[in-house]
UniProtKB/TrEMBL annotation:
GO cellular component: cytosol
Pathway(s) served: Protein biosynthesis; polypeptide chain elongation
Function comment: Involved in peptide bond synthesis. Stimulates efficient translation and peptide-bond synthesis on native or reconstituted 70S ribosomes in vitro. Probably functions indirectly by altering the affinity of the ribosome for aminoacyl-tRNA, thus increasing their reactivity as acceptors for peptidyl transferase.
Matches recorded under PROSITE patterns: EFP (PS01275)
Domain Elongation factor P C-terminal: 129-184
Pfam family, one: EFP_N
Top-level taxon of origin: Bacteria
Cited InterPro entries: Elong-fact-P_C, NA-bd_OB-fold, Rib_uL2_dom2, Transl_elong_fac_P/YeiP, Transl_elong_KOW-like, Transl_elong_P/YeiP_cen, Transl_elong_P/YeiP_CS, Transl_elongation_fac_P
Family note: Belongs to the elongation factor P family.
Protein name: Elongation factor P
Places the protein is found: Cytoplasm
Limits of the Translation elongation factor P/YeiP central domain: 67-121
UniProt record, GO biological process: peptide biosynthetic process
Amino acid sequence: MISVNDFKTGLTVEVDGDIFTVLDFQHVKPGKGAAFVRSKLKNLRNGNTVERTFRAGETIGRAIIENRAVQYLYASGSEHVFMDNQTYDQFSLEADQLEWELNFLKENMTVNIVSYHSELLGINLPTSVELKVVETEPSVKGNTAQGATKFAKLETGLSVQVPLFINEDDVLLVDTREGKYISRA
């Protein structure tokens, strides 16, 4: 058990039978009435974000989440197959568990699997990945204003805004948290 007064960003807790990670929290001490903690929590099972208010000093369950390194092997229909790097066991996750992550997954890529008491919750991607540009408009000299951008389609199907000097077959570094272009790789 953990007190809500000890909340930290990234802490995983169990509330009403669901597993949440703390995205944001605020301790509030009103002039009249009891203190409370306002928090923003992300459900690790379905990805929904909820706002909850707890009384100061209230205790809730601490959820111990396990992260293991796994390798992404291939997609088979709506299932995506991974292999544990230590035991070589293979397992699959459904596409609806990986909606955002599929924008960045490539075959043979190493990621971390997130599990809670042997229940697979999803994967954690590295903060940035290298992806190849498969389609973009050609840049024309002289049509630039300051900071001009264009769209580029990457090998995973993700479209990102990139500077005009990016061409097809360039390899880009892309932020997996926001899906934005960082630089050329």
